[in-house]
Amino acid sequence: MLLPLSTEPFTAPTDRDMLPSERREFVRTHRTCVFGYRRKNDGPGMSIVYYIPTDDGELLVSTMAGRGKARVIGRDGKVSLCVLDERWPFAYLQVYADAVIESDRDLVVDVMTAVAGRMSGQPLGEEARPFIEAMAEKENRVVVRCKPYETFAQPPRHLHRNDQEEVITHWVSGMVPWDAEDPA
What residues does the Pyridoxamine 5'-phosphate oxidase N-terminal domain cover (predicted)? Predict the structure, then answer.
């Protein structure tokens, strides 16, 4: 089941690393990411996309079958999604995932509808479905189904003044399995 757009994105703590449950909540409550994948040559391919979280922890991305995101998954199902905070100071969470392509028309249209709702900030009514179905067909849309397996968090850090009295502190975040439990 696709999750609705959150009314309040999770705010990352500024004084410590995010707990595993907070990392999952961060992903569930945001809507945009930099979608990255390995290219045969050159550096990684990256594009900013809206994603749709599901109730079982997957992340769904709509794309055209002819685009690089979809084409590369056939040869290399490893992707990353750098989930972006939309508030200052910015935090981000890197999600590493195994990806497959889904072409089920109902799923494609459901994801496109959910993306349109995230773009506009409000859900679309059923009256929009025929237009979205036509667009899905015309653009040969598919869904990239991403199953996260690991995360890396970057805390939001901000310099409030530029007089060097305030020191920005940093700490090292680590890779955390997607389904890890919070420490006791």
Answer: 20-150
Q: Please list the alpha-helical segments (H only) found in the chain.
A: 20-29, 68-73, 105-120, 129-138
pLDDT in tens, 60-98: 999 999 999 999 998 889 999 999 988 877 789 999 999
Helix axes 129-138, 105-120, angle to 10 degrees: 110
* List of E strands, the chain: 32-37, 45-50, 52-53, 59-64, 78-84, 92-102, 141-154, 176-177
Measuring CA to CA, how many Å separate 29 from each of 74, 107, 128?
29, 21, 24
Statement: the pTM of the whole predicted model exceeds 0.70:
yes
